[in-house]
Design goal:
This protein is of the alpha/beta class and 263 residues long. The protein folds into 2 domains: 37 residues, no CATH class; 222 residues, Rossmann fold (3-Layer(aba) Sandwich). The chain has 10 helices and 6 strands; from the N terminus they run ααααβαβααββαβαβα. Strands 3-2-4-5-1-6 form a 6-stranded parallel sheet, with helices on both faces. The radius of gyration is 19 Å and the shape is globular.
Length: 263
């Protein structure tokens, strides 16, 4: 049996339907099958990230990486894997509402309705890897969309807590996140200037960097840095964009800061 046939035999009904609907070629079909079975590590840093996510002795994993390095899909894969094995009873996902565009207060709806659009990517990955629909996972209490503003006082014993876009979190928010008692907490973000959409946070003063500097040396904490164009696997053109724009964004941010000081 070929590798692709073995992979196809492990696909859920939902995975098959998705691939049949969206794959426009045999090559794309093969790529989707590989992604939904297991995101494969391609670089040294990818292997380290996979190992940390799969390491039961690492209760907290801090991942810093550029766009397209696979930060989100990998943590969702291992969380869904633990859920399917019965090792945990639920996956909790959260992120800051801070983003590009209008203030989160301008969005209508309750905490779930405000967070759902920004966490839809994580929900789709978890659904695919768990082999169940998003609605089914939520109804069973196996997938929890948690508003960051309401995380204080919560107890996540028995759960994995996945936190995305951590570069927009403050030091105080990070403290609340990692003290909820989850079996494992994976925090990922991109601290490059373009991703620091919370303009109240200066470069190097975000919550993710704060955690790396303060608790990174503890035995139960794992750190991986994928701020390297070699680790970008989503699209080849993204490497060229990031390599070209990163220095320019840094320079512009410094200019804006110096202009404000002069004024």
């Amino acid at each position: 049996m070929t590798r692709q046939r073995r992979q196809e035999s492990t696909l859920s009904k939902e995975n098959r339907q998705y691939i049949d609907q969206y794959a426009e070629s045999a090559f794309e079909q093969k790529s989707l099958i590989s992604m939904y079975v297991s995101p494969e590590p391609k670089t040294f840093n990818h292997h380290r990230y996979h190992n940390l996510c799969n390491d039961a002795t690492k209760n907290i994993v801090l991942c810093k990486g550029w766009a397209g390095t696979g930060k989100t899909i990998v943590m969702c894969y291992y969380a869904a894997k633990e859920l399917k094995r019965g090792k945990i009873d639920r996956i909790v996902i959260t992120r800051s509402l801070e983003g590009v565009g209008k203030d989160p207060g301008a969005y209508r709806g309750d905490a779930y309705e405000k967070n759902e659009p920004k966490l839809r990517g994580l929900m789709n990955y978890i659904s695919c890897f768990a082999g169940q629909s998003i609605e089914s996972l939520i109804q069973q209490g196996k997938l929890v969309v948690q508003g960051l503003a309401d995380i204080q006082g919560q107890d996540f014993t028995g759960a994995w807590l996945l936190v995305t876009e951590c570069q927009t979190l403050t030091d105080e928010q990070m403290y609340q996140v990692i003290t909820r008692g989850a079996e494992k907490v994976i925090l990922e973000g991109d601290t490059c200037p373009a991703q620091l959409t919370n303009h109240k946070i200066a470069i190097g003063e975000d919550g993710l960097t704060f955690l790396m500097e303060t608790i990174g040396d503890l035995d139960f904490v794992g750190i991986v840095d994928m701020c390297n164009d070699e680790d970008i696997v989503r699209k080849e053109y993204m490497k060229q964009i990031i390599k070209r724009m990163m220095p320019a964004l840094e320079e512009r941010r410094i200019k804006r800061k110096s202009t404000c000081i002069v004024k």
